[in-house]
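Section 3.1: Structural characterization of target chains.
Under the original work plan, the team committed to producing a structural model for every single-chain target entering the pipeline before any wet-lab resources were allocated. The record below documents one such target. The sequence was received from the expression subgroup and is listed exactly as submitted; it comprises 379 residues.
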Amino acid sequence: MELPARKSGGMVTSYIFSSTGGWKRQTLTVLAALAVAGGLAIADTKPNTIGLKPQAIAISVRALEGFDKEHPDKRRFGRLEWRGGLVLSSSSANFGGWSGLRMSPSGDRLIAVSDAGTWLTASIEYQNGRPTGLKSARIGPLLATSKGALFRPRDRDAEGIAIVEGTLEKGTALIAFEQHDRIGRFAIGGSGVAAPVGYLTIPPEMKRVRSNDGFEAITVLRGGPLKGALVGFAERLLPGEVHHSGWIWQKDVPKRTWLTDIDGFDLTDAASLPDGSLLFLERRFRWSEGVKMRIRRVPAGEVKPGSIMKGEVLIEADLNFEIDNMEGIGVHTSASGETILTLISDDNFNPLLQRTILLQFALAATANSDNPVQNEARK
C-alpha cells in the first residue's frame, strides 16, 4: 500500500531553511515527503496486469555499502546484525509495489506479491553470507477463481503472503488482499502462482475497516501450541480501537487478538520464527520526519486468541538509514545456523523518488546499545 498523505502547513519550508547542523536530516525528510506525494499521485496508474502472462524478468542490483548512511561500517543495530542489502530495479513496468514476502527455509529463493496484483519468484545469490544478486526471476499476475484476470484495481491489491504447506516451488500459499479484503488459497508450481481455489472466512470486524486499512500482515505459525494456524492483522487501527486488530484462524474460525500500538506505527507484514514467536514489520510516515520503520518480536507465549500482545522492539530506523517504504518481511536459516530476516520495500511504482530495496539482518541472541534510534551517542 502507498504511504498515507498527511498535511502540515509550512512544515516543508521551515525544514528546508533549518540550521546547517540539521540540513542533511531535514533534506531527507523533504525528499521523503515528495516521495509520498509522488506515490499518491500515481496510485491510480499502477500497471494494468490484465494482459500480463507469467514470464522471465531481468532484475538489476546495486549493493548497499552499509545500513547506517553516516557510518557504513557499523554492523550492529539493537538485536540485529547487518548482513547486506541490494537496490533492485528492472526495465519492466510491472516491477515494483512489493508488499508481501516469503523466503525458502535456506534463503536461496523468495516469493513476493505486489499491490498491483502480481507475484515475483527469484533465486538469491550470496557471497560470504551477503546477498549479491537475483537470478532466474519470473513475474506473473494473480488471478480470479475463474482463472481469468482480476479486472478491478481494488481486487488486485495484494499485501501479504504466507506458505501453508510445501515449498516455494510446489506448495500452497495464502495471499491477503486489502481494499476488497479477503484471503485466498493459491497453489504454487513450476508456472508460478495459480488461480485461487477458495477463500477463508473473513472476520466480521473487517466490515468496519476503511478501504486502504485492511489486511496487510499475515503469517502461518511455525511452532508453539498453535503451530500451523494463520495469523492476520489489519494495517491500521480499526475505528474506535486503541490496539492493532488481528485474528488467529483455528479450524477456519477467526478469533480476535491484538497488538499494542506504539507511537502510531502501521503494521505492514508479519513472519513467524520456528519457535512460534512473531515478527511484526511496522512503518510510520510524518511530513515532519519522513518515513520510519520498526521490527517487533512477540514471544510465542503471547500469541493466542484474546491476547493483547506487546513484544520487544528489535530495531527502529529513520531516513538516516537505508530504508524506504518497508512492507515485506521473511525469515530463513542460514547455512551457519543464523536466523536471517529479509525485508523488501514498496516503491509505489515511483522509481524517481523511491526505491525497491532488499535488506538482510541476522537476529542476534542478545541486545546491545547500538540501536539506531535509542542510542543517545548518535546525537
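The chain has a mean pLDDT of 87.
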